[in-house]
Design a protein that fits this description.
By secondary structure, the chain is an alpha/beta fold. The chain contains 13 helices and 9 strands. The protein is elongated and about 95 Å long.
């Protein structure tokens, strides 16, 4: 019976013929030096150069080297494949471009053995090689995105994009990972923070990579930021939604009962259309917060007792009835306008303000009614 390895080293590989052999040799040296019970898993992500041939040749020399193939391109896709096949109690992850030192494996594993669930390298605490990181990554992109990340998720990780990291097997049992691109690195830390898992970071050296970089600064930076916002619905939906709704409601109220003057400009009825737009848009954004929370709890495994109690108390019938009630207010105002028109003998009307208010209530009611069904759909749990 074969003995399962204590450590799995997972390395994604896409066209890294200049570096992959150097990585494997360094891993071998580390294993022998520290007498580690280790397996090596290299996930070929559809390489079109000589990477796969090098791996196949090396696998005949290293019995504990396994080659997996993931044809769906993407940093996250490759790692999901590798992690699914890893058998070790501890899993070390690093890129195949020789930018990270595999001699750091014992340091990461020791940190996991202290009780941490995820250990992330920090290049800025360590040593960054002269030509290993473009200046706009070093001084703008990485620090800015890491700062936003820390603000949104309250974690003490200062280099969220570092590719050298380690996890224990229980980590994979506690979280769900979905993303297939470079944002996978951020998703891993987000998932850990949401589950209140123990995180740690250690300084690492970052060398100049071998071969051509696959990173696309604008696209990949945006994908990281987009993921952060998607997992931060309070900042994405609630805060701007409440501001828009209250601003629209207050200005709609003021414009309905008066014609204010500002900077010698007299405002009449037409700005009410913009106020109505703010009310309607802000209201829908608040509902989007509800959609995102329901989806996260029922489909992404997020745990939040307060939200779960709230959603149990807010039934489709209650929200749907509220939508009908709000719509009836708008319909009643339209009926009043129509009645006024009849009384004037179908002549000209000056009911623009009432029409805007009626339209606002009617749209809000319809939003509420149909959103109740959307919330109910999202509440259906996966089997």
């Amino acid at each position: 019976m074969s003995i399962k390895p204590e450590i799995s080293v997972v390395v994604p590989c896409l066209n890294e013929e200049e570096a992959i052999l150097l990585c494997l040799n360094e891993i071998e040296e580390t294993i022998k030096k520290y007498n580690l019970n280790t397996e090596i898993i290299v996930v070929d992500n559809g390489s079109s150069d000589g990477s796969l041939a090098i791996l196949q040749k090396k696998s005949s020399e290293i019995p504990y080297l396994r080659i997996l193939v993931e044809l769906e391109r993407g940093y996250g896709a490759a790692y999901l494949k590798g992690l699914s096949g890893a058998q070790g109690v501890y899993i070390f992850m690093a890129d195949a471009d020789f930018s990270y030192e595999f001699s750091d494996i014992p340091r990461f594993i020791d940190k996991l053995k202290e009780g941490n669930d995820l250990v992330v390298g920090n290049r800025f605490m360590g040593k960054i090689g002269k030509n290993s990181m473009p200046w706009h990554h070093k001084y703008i992109g990485n620090p800015l995105l890491s700062h936003i990340f820390k603000l949104l998720f309250k974690v003490k990780i200062n280099d969220i994009h570092c590719g050298a990291r380690a996890i224990n097997r229980n980590f994979l049992n506690k979280i769900k990972l979905h993303t297939k691109g470079m944002e996978f690195a951020s998703e891993m830390i987000i998932a850990a923070s949401q589950k209140k898992l123990r995180l740690a970071e250690i300084p690492v050296r970052y060398r100049e990579r071998k071969g051509e970089s696959k990173l696309q600064s604008t696209r990949d930076g945006w994908r990281h930021l987009r993921l952060m916002l998607l997992y931060s619905p309070f900042y994405l939906f609630l805060i701007p939604g409440v501001i828009m709704f209250l601003t629209g409601f207050v200005t709609l109220f003021i414009l309905y009962f008066s014609s204010p003057r500002l900077f010698d400009i007299q405002f009449f009825v037409h700005p009410m259309f913009f106020s109505s737009l703010l009310v309607i848009t802000g209201y829908q954004m608040i509902f989007f917060l509800g959609f995102s929370r329901v989806y996260a709890i029922n489909h992404l495994g997020e745990e939040n007792a307060q939200w779960e109690r709230l959603f149990k108390s807010i039934t489709i019938e209650k929200v749907g009835f509220a939508g009908i009630f709000i719509s009836l207010i708008g319909i009643s105002i339209y009926i009043y306008i129509f009645y006024t028109w009849i009384r004037t003998g179908f002549g000209s009307l000056n009911e623009i303000k009432n029409s805007i208010v009626a339209l606002t209530f009617l749209v809000l009611g319809m939003q509420t009614f149909f959103s109740s069904f959307m919330l109910s759909i999202l509440s259906i749990r996966d089997k």
